[in-house]
Each structure stands twice: as C-alpha cells, then as structure tokens.
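Structural prep section.
Before we set up the soaks we want a predicted structure of the protein with 1-O-phosphono-alpha-D-ribofuranose in place, mainly to decide which crystallisation condition to try first. Input record follows.
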Amino acid sequence: MALSPSELILNPDGSIYHLNLLPGDIAPTIIVVGDPDRVSQVSSKFDVIETRKQKREFQTHTGRLNGKRLTVISTGIGTDNIDIVMNELDALANIDFTTRTIRKELKQLDIIRIGTSGAVQPDIPVDSFVLSEFAIGLDGLKHFYKTEDAMESSMVKAFVAQTGWAGEKALPYAVESDKNMREELMSNRIRLGVTVTNSGFYAPQGRNLRLENSDPDMQAKLKAFNHNGMRITNMEMETSAIYLLAKLLGHRAVSMNCILANRSTGDFSENSKKAVDGLIRYVLEKITS
Ligand SMILES: O=P(O)(O)O[C@H]1O[C@H](CO)[C@@H](O)[C@H]1O
Ligand SMILES: O=c1cc[nH]c(=O)[nH]1
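Run finished without errors. Recording the tokens verbatim:
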C-alpha cells in the first residue's frame, strides 16, 4: 500500500522532508557526526565532493575517497534527531518515492558514527578513541518501536539492578554494534567499550551547574557497573538510537568516540578539533584501504 503524504513526507523537489536528499544523493557507506561543522572536516579529506546539501542541522556531503563512494551527514544533538536521520536514510535507500511503496529488494547501509564523548573511567584519557561494542540507551526511544528480540536483555537487567534505576525514568535498553564492522575498525589504537547514551548533557550525564541531580550517585554507579567483565567506558547522546534503528531496519552500525572529557579526573581535551581530526583520519583510512 502506498504511504500517504503525511507519513512519507517529500519536499516539492522530491527530496525527503528533513534531510532534503534524493535517493541518489547517498552512498552505501554513511558517516554520521553530531556537529554540522564536522561534515566539512570529514569531506575535506575526500578526493572529490559530488553533492553538498543542507536543511536545519542536517548537512550532507557525498563524494569519493580512494575510489569508494562515501556520504557524511550531521545529525545534530540527541536521539530524537537520530530517529529522523535513521528513518529518512532508510527511506532514501529502501522506499520508492514514485510509487511510495517499500522496495522488494532492501539495501543494507553501513553507518559509522564519528562522535565526541565523555569517559566514565579514570584510565581512559582525553583524546583517546573508544569503539562502542554495546550501547545502553537511557533515552527511551526503543519503547516506541516494536522490537522483540533485537535487544541485550541480560545487560539491561544487570544495569537496572546495579544502578537502582528509578521507575519514573524510561527503562534502559541495550544494543550491540555490528560485529563485522567492529572487526574492520579495530586496532590497538582503539579501546572497546560500553557506551551509555543519555537524553541530555547536564543532569542526565551527572553534571551540576546550578541545578541538583535527582540521583547524585549515578556517576559512581555507572563507574562501578560490571556485566560479565564489561564496564561502562563513556557517555554521549546518539549511539544507542543508531544501534537500535540500524538493527531494526537491517543496517550495520558502529560508533567511534573521541574522548574529549574525563568525568572521573575532571580533564577536558586541550585541542578537541585536532583529536577529532585524528579519529576522522583513522576511520577514513580503515574504511577505504
Ligand atoms: O560531537 P557529537 O557527535 O555531537 O557528540 C557529542 O557531543 C554532543 C554534546 O556536546 C552530543 O551530540 C554528544 O553525543
Ligand atoms: O562529556 C561529554 C563530552 C562530549 N559529549 C558528551 O555527550 N559528553
């Protein structure tokens, strides 16, 4: 059945509503970044840029590097934006905009987040890189989708028990990254970790400026969490939703984090742009060589 104009929303030029992209504008390998300024930091390393489009915080460049077609797109901050980006990227790949129907043959996208993050453990220094083997989502997005068995329920149970998770907050969820992509991106420069995705930057990540946190011990509980020898390495604001929607839509995803803050030691990167540039170069080399 054809999707109605209120469900699959297309702009007058036929592009998808928020991303402002046509199906031919995206490559099968997509780098997602939070900060719109990071898009040109990535695409400046391409051999050629063929498409540049933007609407709101969603900036997209598509081009080629070492013969491989790549797209880099900014998501802005937060899992609510990820809901838009992942659904619209999937629509570009897997919905026929002319008939407004889902294609019979579905395409699988490779999605790599290059993001910034705060370390939870004192031994993960600023400017280091963490690959999120698992993400624990505190953002609640999962509960709006029919998910069945795609989730890591034993990790969720352990997290709820060990943190004494308050019933009035959204139930956490946990999702694994794509194993093959993980292998493609790993090396001894990368730490593997469990990333907590929060619904905010201040109280949700245990920061207090003028307002108090409802659970002042949450940071200590995250630091102490242990599930089958795995510990929480870092916090940010998008990875759980990327992993969740990639899994549900049949895409592959992995999240690479440049650690800018260390929440245990109080350190912050002295040259965050340079540190992020190092992670961009690392990822581009790994996926195009
Ligand atoms: O640098 P990006 O990719 O935006 O990622 C991190 O930085 C933002 C907060 O400063 C959040 O989006 C967080 O996930
Ligand atoms: O502490 C941090 C640093 C970057 N991004 C976050 O979400 N948290």
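Observations: DSSP finds seven helices and 14 strands in the chain.
Flagged for discussion at group meeting.
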